[in-house]
Structures are given as C-alpha cells and as structure tokens.
Amino acid sequence: MKGQKMKNRTVKYGYAYQNGIITINPTESMTVKRIFDLYISGLSLLKIAQLLTSENIEYMPREVSWNKGKIKRIIDDDIYTGIDLYPSVVSKETYDKANKVKTARDTQKNVDRESDIYKLNVPILCANCGSPLKRNHETRCVQGTRWICKNNDCHNIIHLNDDTLLKETTHLLNTIIKNPDLIKEDNGCGVISNETVRIENEIRKILEHGKINKDSITEMIFRNASIKYSNINSINHITEKLRSDFNTSPLSAFSLSLFSKTVTAITLDKSYIKITLKNNQKIGGALWNKQYCSERSTT
Length: 299
Description:
- It is built from 8 helices and 10 strands.
- It is of the alpha+beta class.
- Strand 7 (263-268) and strand 8 form a beta hairpin.
- Helix 2 (45-54) packs across helix 3.
- The N and C termini lie far apart (63 Å).
C-alpha cells in the first residue's frame, strides 16, 4: 500500500524460527531447491523470477515480489548448504554446480562486444543448405565457438573459433589484393533478377496459350532485355568499384572497413570458407590450406 514501509525478513528465505532455533520452512525450502534446479537446467535469473511471480509464490507472507536480485542472492548464498546455525536445504554439490553455471554465464557477459566478430554485418551461411548459421560461443569448449545451422533438417555444426574465422577471411581479402585479376567482369549473362524471371514466365504462358498480341509480346521481350542489360552494366560497375577498393596494401590484420565495402556474405563448411563479393562473385578456399578459387553466383 502507498506509504507503507517495506517488510524485512527476520530470517533468510527458506527458513523459520521455532522456539528460538532456526529451522527449515517446508514450503519456502521447496522453492529454494526449485530455484537451484531451474537455474542449473538453463533458466536465467529473470525467467525464474518471472515464473515464481506468475505462480503467485510468496517471498514474504501475502507478498509476491520476485526479481533477479532475490534469485541471485539465493544462488550465491552458501548458507543453504548447511553452515553456521542453518540446516541444509541443498547439497554442496548442487550449490557448486549452480555457481559454476553462474560463473560461465558471467564470463560470456564479459565478452568484448567491440570485437570485430560482432560487427560482421553480413549473413554467415551454411555450405550444405544455404541457411543462416547461428554463432554459439561456449567458454567451456576447447574450440570456443560453434556455428549451428538454423535449418532443423540440416543439423550442420561447424567448430571454428572467432580468431580463425577472421584470420581466414583476412587471407581471402589479401588473396584478392595480391591477385586483382580474380575479380572478373560478368560473362554477359548478368544476374537473373526476380523481375526477369517473372517476365519470362509471362511470355512463356502467352506463347503456350497461342493468343499472341505481337505488339504486347514485343514490348515484353524488349523490356526483359533492357532489364538484363541494366543488370550487366550494374554488376560491371560494381566490379570496377571492387577493383578500386582492393587496390590497397596487403592487410596485416582483419580490416572491417574493407570487408564491409566489398563482402555481402560468408559461407562456411567444416573445412571450407567462401566470401561473396558485392558483384555476386564467390572467392573461397580450404581452411588452413590457403588453396583459393573463384566462381560467380547466379542467385
């Protein structure tokens, strides 16, 4: 109520005084055990607090007021293992397990978000199916980072730490800098755009039905050719811009600036990496072997 002072507990949550002795509160101690179990199973402090609040579990008599701080204080407090005058609510093993989880999560919070790996503003794609890969950083794993395909039917998992990914990408950028002829003009086909596909399908349907309006179909054919020609010019203009961007000294470290100006995607396999340039050309090679090749995407 407004103006009412907040109540203070006279004994830690999970316990009660009985005849001047600290004893276990049966109801609250069950909640303490549940908090430890939920946290170990993967729920965050906030999620646990929200869950207990939604279930109207009291923190104090007639008061439901759970938050992250209260959950954290319970997990941090080794009193629940049974020290001083407090009887045991959870085992030392459970307490240690929960606090190892907390330490691991805190380590991830301390990750340097200013690192270049967090500034790669292009999709990282699965070589198997073309779906996006999700970065999963696990401090307890030797290799540190896993890239997991978001396509549930693919199940592709690539173990590649951040430093190696940036290092291999830098090798590819340097390969282009040292071999500018890798950046090639379009072969005349241009990029097959959605608009040209739509027009060609429409022309095909007209021809199949046999009801042909000569002026109409001629206009469609010329419009389609115009779009394709425009696409070729556009790609070749981008190619010239790429050559200009790569006309620079070899990189001694990953360059986010050059990467952002020239690359639209990275494709990963377990032993292979490709970058897609802004002219839809792909430059790639075997990880660690530095055997690079070039190809052009038509999608």
